[in-house]
Amino acid sequence: MTLLQAKNLHKSFGGVPAVNNATIDVVEGSITGLIGPNGAGKTTLFNLLSNFITPDTGEVIFNGQAVQTMPSHRIARQGMVRTFQVAKALSRLSVLENLLLATQHQTGENFFNVWLQPGRIRKEERLAKAHAMEILDSIGLVEKAHDYAGGLSGGQRKLLEIGRALMMQPKLILLDEPAAGVNPTLINQICDYIQTWNKEGVTFLVIEHNMDVIMSLCDRVWVLAEGANLAVGTPEEVQTNAQVLEAYLGQ
Ligand SMILES: Nc1ncnc2c1ncn2[C@@H]1O[C@H](COP(=O)(O)OP(=O)(O)OP(=O)(O)O)[C@@H](O)[C@H]1O
Asked: What is the Cα–Cα distance from 220 to 94, expressed in whole angstroms?
């Protein structure tokens, strides 16, 4: 089944197209790759898929619903979550607090409920904390739960980003460069974790420049160049595609 489908997406900045009539789909249960040379439009496409920016034309359907009709927080609740770099402000919070911040629809978010339903709030907080500790355990960060997020290595920060996405119990994670700035040993570990979560039912769409990561993880890969579709296929197919090679060499 197709979990995410984008058709004929177009987005220009100052008259210059960043995404040019692009089409992409992600099959439920897959690990799908999105690659392309620098400036190909991958990040802009992620922003369009998650409705962070509005396309000039085209549409995005996630799990049978048009995302353009939903604000970003509702898209996350529906199960499409994207990772974000650990921002400076969050570096001064603990690793556990970073995860807890990602939880949603907490009764305690409503001012009056703090007085009206204190028992329920405490229970929700306990459950969220237990869930966060489970996730930290699954990404090898449980010993760091009470350390500042700012003290984590590049690779551990990447894992924390994924951990925050997992807190929302997503169907689909849009993962932005999981291997960027990460040492090779931890890259392999991150790939193993992604495969484990995928087996547990999470679908992934991954932007990545590291072709070894794409080759080892992905079932299918979409290639963008200058905002437009260039190729789609298995990692082996796209790696030997003449047009793809030319687009990369021509950079
Ligand atoms: N907000 C913006 N305003 C103006 N131009 C933009 C904006 N966002 C992206 N662009 C332009 O759109 C094009 C595509 O950029 P985008 O960041 O989506 O590419 P990318 O494939 O993610 O690149 P990289 O691999 O280098 O991260 C680039 O030419 C970029 O300069």
From this structure: 36
Q: How far is CA 170 from CA 27, 29, 128, in A?
A: 15, 12, 15
d(CA 168, CA 63): 16
User: How far does the centroid of ligand 1 lie from the alpha carbon of residue 19, in Å?
Assistant: 9
pTM listed for this prediction? 0.90
Pair 22, 224: CB distance under 8 Å: yes
Q: How far is the CA of 47 from the centre of ligand 1 (A)?
A: 11
Q: What is the ipTM of this complex?
A: 0.96
Pocket of ligand 1 (CB under 6 A): 13, 18, 36, 38-44
Measured in Å, residue 13 CA sits from the centre of ligand 1 at 9
Question: pLDDT exceeding 70 applies to what percent of the chain?
Answer: 90
